[in-house]
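Incident log, support desk, overnight shift.

02:14 A customer reports that sequence design results differ from what the structure should imply. Their input is reproduced verbatim below. On-call engineer (initials T.W.) acknowledged and began investigating.
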């Protein structure tokens, strides 16, 4: 857990007077979604801040225990349930350039590629494979990558690339 928090931009050890959780971290923990698949409500940040105060010195956080404690605010329980749903069978990732932080399937490996496929609503993880018949890509699974989920990746394209999105298209086989 400690390594994941640090990848998300949190300084460790966590101070008792923590006042801000890095946006990429708290939004990734909930896949930037709230109840009924709406955008994450702003109070998630405050609830996340309160939860992180309970991280143990060795970097652990028992969301189940925290949820069941008497006196735990309902907002915190709501957040913890969402975090459990999102991070289940996922692992945190930080791209080589350290510009992209997110969640990938547990079987993702260093060297895999994060791709935005036309017609697909979320980034996917692909693994390049070689065979006797040539190169192909193995589909590893869907991912959450903070900052490129809701069309933000298009903002990084030049005007020409946005006007002609198929100009740089690459065709490849996925198995």
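02:41 Re-run completed on a clean worker. Output:
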């Amino acid at each position: 857990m400690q390594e994941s928090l640090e990848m998300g931009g949190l300084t460790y050890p966590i101070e008792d007077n923590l006042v801000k959780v890095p946006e990429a971290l708290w939004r990734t923990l909930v896949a930037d979604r709230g109840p009924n698949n709406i955008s994450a409500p702003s109070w998630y940040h405050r609830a996340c801040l309160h939860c992180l105060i309970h991280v143990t010195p060795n970097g652990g956080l028992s969301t189940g225990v925290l949820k069941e404690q008497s006196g735990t605010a309902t907002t915190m329980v709501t957040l913890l349930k969402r975090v459990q749903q999102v991070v289940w069978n996922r692992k945190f990732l930080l791209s080589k350039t350290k510009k992209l932080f997110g969640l990938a399937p547990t079987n993702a490996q260093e060297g895999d590629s994060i791709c935005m496929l036309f017609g697909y609503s979320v980034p996917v993880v692909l693994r390049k494979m070689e065979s006797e018949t040539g190169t192909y890509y193995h589909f590893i699974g869907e991912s959450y990558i903070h900052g490129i989920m809701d069309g933000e990746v298009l903002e990084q394209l030049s005007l020409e690339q946005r006007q002609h999105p198929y100009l740089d298209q690459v065709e490849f086989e996925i198995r």
